[in-house]
Amino acid sequence: MLEGKVVVVTGAANGIGRAAALALAAQGARVVVNDLNVSLDGTSASQSTASQVVEEIRAAGGEAIASGDSVAEYASAQRIVETAADTYGRVDAIVNNAGIVRDKMFHRLTPEDFDAVVKVHLYGCFNLSHAAARHFREQSGGSLINMTSNSAVIGNRGQANYCAAKLGIVGLSKAMALDMAAFNVRSNCIAPLAWSRMTETIPAKTEEQARHVEKIRRMGPETIAPLICYLASDASAEVTGQVFAIRLNEIFLMSQSRPVRSVHRSEGWTAQSIAEHGMAALRASFMPLDTSAQVFSWDPV
């Protein structure tokens, strides 16, 4: 499905990124395997490298090149895209997958923890997508595949920085879909649930948490790769502005924010009338304070 395509995958030394890079290459894509080769919190070196994934792809008969530039800085992100263009002559899809986590309860979160996570996830998505936009416009086509999270679109505890960045990616992705549609460029989000370095941080202190973690262990990162390959291919030419969730054998089309219920008062509202009537009418439609684990509570099949 991807013969002749050139795809950039960030955060591709481990987990979902690595699985995506291998699957894209198996489908015929030439892959730029990007990874900064750092630990999960972004503070130290990792043993897994982009070069190792490139070797795996080449050993299987595919084409790939490694990139060690950071997505968090614009000039560096430009170099990633130029690596694709200079090496293979074009770029057809970007998989914005790079990320770090620094999980803490909100009252313990530091500005440095917040900034570091937002820079890699949200700024990284913007930086790389913006760097690719010129190429997409010139060739009248391209695909932006942006990894969000159920922690963001539904909610989770201890991840305020991560949730803010990942939900920001949903808004950014929709804006890019709208702005770039005139150039046949599509932009979609995937909220994956799979066992990777990111999910290793999920606590398992209670019996309920332990059961949740055990479910996720069954869902390898390779289960996300087919959807990434599809969105990178011409088969998805009419698919844009969507948010998909995936876990094991299930693919979900996620809702996006729309009005749920309204109340009207012809003479206008006061704080008192809002308290007495407005909220009383709306309360039945309030969203519950759920976490993603509570929403996806059944066993995957």
Automatic annotation (TrEMBL):
Domain of life according to the entry: Bacteria
Keyword Oxidoreductase: yes
Keyword Oxidoreductase annotated: yes
One Pfam family from the record: adh_short
Annotated ranges, domain Ketoreductase: 5-201
EC number, as in UniProt: 1.1.1.-
Keywords: Oxidoreductase
GO MF term list: oxidoreductase activity
Similarity comment text for this entry: Belongs to the short-chain dehydrogenases/reductases (SDR) family.
PANTHER family from the UniProt entry: BLL2957 PROTEIN, DEHYDROGENASES, SHORT CHAIN
Record-given protein name: Short-chain type dehydrogenase/reductase
Organism: Achromobacter agilis
